[in-house]
């Protein structure tokens, strides 16, 4: 049976490297802050990120906790490769019970905060309770203090970050929420670097519910690395491998935003709220061409120590959309959500939409999907101008799109109806609006149409992967055995875009994990940890009474009814058959989705097995 982290603050010697060996626990009810030194087995078996997060939350949170109540625990976690020579070791994960799905919630982000949380002395920080007044947490070279955030409450995410970084510079890095998180919008995200978002599952709303405006991390501690020479050598080898395949150059230039036009026509990007066909509904996608995505670029940037530096900052917007200088260059998901899915090919409006989402602290995938939903309701007479504060939400109306995002960010007028997501908005609007609310289990879906996965592209999330994931509708998550690598990457604290690129000398994970942690484990052993983490996240959902086979999934996502024209015409994948296969491969029951006892024991999840199979019930 796996040992679970317990409070043992007297312990000094920590054998596994790559970790700072400490968690912070912050009780926002009382203001009490404690340091926990976790058991090494927790690191060994759950690696980090949402792996450790799922184990901790399962153990220390009661089932049925209100997502926006004091019993929910918000965790911010790094991985063993975060802040080390590893390429893309820059990520942190946010975990909590999700207000969006009512089950396991997580989101993650790059930028600079993850490494700096470790440099400040901690692998993770957990928050319980609700503060009486707005606060932020300052972690300064090992010391932690809750500070009054009255002057920050109501402030946008850019100004919040700037104010705190100025106060605690040099080397202070910040994650924060914007006004949307303060107002508990379910689509609120956690932001850093003025545009890197832990966007999904309502993590910004959970942070807002705790009246926690920000976390500041500052420190100059070194992350212990078992074999620093080998780690540096592997970084060099990894960089050369990525360069030899052309990935670095290609990705540096356009990032993920280089294929918005092609994806709008190939069937990859959903069109007109998942009901349209790109080549018919947006015949001219030249406005989304990759050269336009970099046309207003001021400088290139990226996450901490990443040689791809796939991000960029724009110059001040001109013409109709005057966004400020420093607005992040567009990512693919944002282009898809505010572009083809809203029948909009005006790139400047999408840049403005992206800026507003970062400014107010809202997830761009959900925000774009909500606008598309509202446009379809408007076009079908379910809502009109009297409902929408005079805004004409017709397909492709980009000025209306931008105006409505402002209202959502302020939770004002019709924006207040929309800002908790399409499922809740449809319930409030009524009159048949539910038919246009495209979501899985409450979560708006990533901008890779899974119908194409069953049709053309292997590697894209398939319909059942979207449907059955512990956090449904996520294009970065997957399900079944293919999800083990995603779980591992998240837990290690790396970026899946770059870390998973095929390399001439094979996968870097086992070599780098050995160099950093000092534990020599094969890829199979690491993937087993990924499987363990997947089962742990799933166990959290089972305890909340969620069976993924019962997740609502909108018919359009799986071609029910199928499109009549375009590249996805007549594509109607067999969702249940695919799910049946994956459940078997996981050794989960194909009706209840409960993992077999044998599988749980093989993964060392004995306590979960005891709970799911009481009184010695046979698997
Ligand atoms: S590839 Fe891009 S998103 Fe990934 S770590 Fe590098 S800069 Fe960040």
Give a quick precis of the structure.
The chain is of the alpha+beta class and 619 residues long.
Features:
single chain, 619 residues, alpha+beta, six-stranded mixed beta sheet, 14 strands, 37% helix, globular, binds iron/sulfur cluster
Q: What's the arrangement of secondary structure elements?
A:
Elements: E1 23-27, E2 32-36, H1 40-46, H2 49-60, E3 74-77, E4 92-97, E5 104-109, H3 113-119, E6 124-128, E7 135-140, E8 143-148, H4 157-168, E9 173-176, H5 179-182, E10 190-192, E11 196-198, H6 203-209, E12 212-218, H7 228-244, H8 247-254, H9 260-266, H10 278-281, H11 290-293, E13 297-301, E14 311-314, H12 332-338, H13 347-360, H14 364-379, H15 398-410, H16 414-418, H17 422-429, H18 450-453, H19 463-468, H20 483-492, H21 496-499, H22 509-517, H23 523-543, H24 575-586, H25 597-602, H26 606-612
Parallel strand pairs: 1-6, 7-12
Antiparallel strand pairs: 1-2, 3-4, 3-6, 4-5, 7-8, 9-12, 10-11, 13-14
Helix pairs in contact: 1-2, 2-20, 2-23, 7-22, 12-14, 13-15, 20-23
The protein binds iron/sulfur cluster.
Describe this structure in words.
The chain is built from 26 helices and 14 strands. The chain has 619 residues and is an alpha+beta fold. The strands form 4 sheets. Strands 2-1-6-3-4-5 form a 6-stranded mixed β-sheet. A 4-stranded mixed β-sheet has the order 8-7-12-9. A hairpin with a 2-residue loop joins strand 7 (135-140) and strand 8. The two termini are 17 Å apart. Iron/sulfur cluster (SF4) binds at residues 88, 90, 110, 302-303, 306, 308-311, 495, 497-498.
């Amino acid at each position: 049976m796996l040992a679970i982290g317990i409070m043992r603050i007297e312990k000094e010697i920590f054998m596994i490297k790559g970790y700072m060996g400490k968690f912070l626990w912050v009780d926002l009810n009382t203001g009490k802050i404690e340091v926990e030194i976790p058991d090494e087995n927790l690191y060994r078996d759950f690696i980090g990120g949402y792996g450790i997060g799922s184990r901790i939350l399962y153990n220390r949170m009661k089932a049925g906790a209100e997502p926006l109540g004091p019993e929910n625990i918000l965790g911010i976690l790094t991985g063993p490769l975060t802040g080390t020579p590893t390429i893309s070791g820059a990520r942190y994960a946010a975990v909590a019970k999700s207000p969006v799905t009512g089950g396991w919630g997580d989101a993650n982000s790059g930028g600079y905060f993850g490494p700096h949380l470790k440099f400040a002395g901690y692998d993770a920080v957990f928050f319980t309770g609700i503060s009486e007044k707005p606060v932020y947490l300052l972690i300064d070279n090992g010391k932690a203090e809750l500070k009054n955030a009255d002057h920050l409450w109501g402030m946008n995410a850019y100004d919040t970050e700037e104010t705190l970084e100025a106060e605690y510079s040099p080397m202070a890095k910040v994650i924060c929420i914007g006004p949307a998180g303060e107002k508990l919008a379910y689509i609120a995200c956690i932001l850093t670097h003025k545009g890197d978002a832990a966007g999904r599952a309502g993590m910004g709303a959970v942070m807002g519910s705790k009246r926690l405006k920000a976390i500041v991390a500052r420190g100059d501690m070194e992350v212990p690395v078992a074999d620093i020479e080998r780690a540096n050598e592997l970084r060099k080898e990894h960089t050369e491998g990525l360069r030899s395949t052309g990935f670095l150059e290609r990705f540096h230039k356009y990032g993920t935003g280089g294929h918005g036009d092609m994806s709008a026509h190939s069937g990859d990007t959903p069109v007109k709220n998942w009901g349209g066909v790109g080549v018919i509904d947006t015949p001219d996608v030249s406005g989304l061409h990759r050269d336009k995505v970099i046309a207003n670029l001021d400088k290139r940037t990226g996450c901490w120590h990443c040689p791809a530096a796939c991000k960029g900052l724009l110059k001040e917007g001109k013409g109709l959309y005057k966004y400020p200088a420093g607005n992040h260059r567009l990512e693919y998901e944002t282009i898809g959500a505010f572009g083809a899915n809203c029948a909009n090919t005006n790139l400047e409006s999408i840049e403005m939409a992206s800026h507003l989402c970062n400014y107010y602290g809202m997830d761009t995938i959900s925000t774009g999907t909500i606008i598309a939903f509202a446009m379809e309701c408007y076009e079908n007479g379910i809502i009109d101008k009297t409902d929408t504060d005079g805004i004409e939400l017709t397909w492709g109306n980009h000025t209306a799109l931008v105006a409505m995002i402002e209202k959502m960010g302020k939770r004002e007028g019709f924006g207040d109806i929309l800002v908790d997501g399409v499922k809740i908005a449809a319930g409030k609007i009524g009159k048949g609006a539910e038919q246009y609310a495209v979501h899985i289990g409450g979560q708006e879906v990533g901008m890779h149409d899974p119908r194409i996965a069953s049709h053309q592209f292997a590697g894209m999330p398939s319909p059942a992967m979207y449907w059955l994931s512990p956090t449904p509708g996520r294009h970065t998550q997957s399900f079944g055995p293919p999800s083990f690598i995603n779980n591992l990457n998240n837990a290690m604290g790396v970026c899946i875009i770059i870390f998973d690129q095929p390399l001439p000398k094979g996968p870097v994970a086992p070599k780098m994990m050995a160099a950093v942690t000092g534990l020599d484990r094969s890829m199979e052993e690491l993937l087993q940890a990924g499987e363990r983490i997947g089962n742990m996240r799933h166990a959290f959902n089972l305890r909340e009474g969620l069976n993924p086979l019962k997740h609502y999934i909108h018919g359009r996502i799986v071609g029910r009814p199928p499109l009549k024209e375009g590249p996805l015409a007549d594509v109607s994948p067999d969702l249940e058959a695919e799910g049946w296969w994956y459940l078997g491969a996981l050794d989960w029951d194909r009706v209840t989705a409960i993992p077999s006892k044998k599988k749980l024991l093989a993964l060392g999840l004995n306590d979960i097995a005891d709970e799911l199979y009481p009184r010695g019930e046979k698997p």
